[in-house]
Fold:
Amino acid sequence: GLEITIIASGGTGALEYSIDGGASFQSNNVFTTTQGGGSYDIVVRDANGCIDGNNETLIISSLDDIANTFGASLYPNPVMNIVTLQFDGSQNELLNIQILDSAGRLIKVLNTASNDNSLQIDMTAFDSGVYHMVISNGDKRASTRIIKI
Structure:
């Protein structure tokens, strides 16, 4: 399974959380799903029934998905300093790469072409912890987890 933690603040009173677009809510901000990757429509509402206008869709996928989606592999993982994103050359497209911390804050943005074969990303200055790399090209999107030691 997969554990999803929603971090939100503001509103009036206790907050309620949804990962299905608001079809169902719960008071606990931690969700455990039976599926791994997938698309989750995050909605937060307060005690007055006000819903955050910045609803987000969270797309979670695994390392295999970046391989299948973009012909990419990531190594070494865990990483101490430099992580390499390697492309197999099967696709020729411009990619946007975002690295987010465990709270979902954007840490780094890179743009590259998948026919560049590889991209080295310096994570030396990053704190130890779990990061998420999201790769997109406008039509497709995939993510994977990076562990910085």
Observations:
- The helical segments are 63-70.
- The radius of gyration is 17 Å.
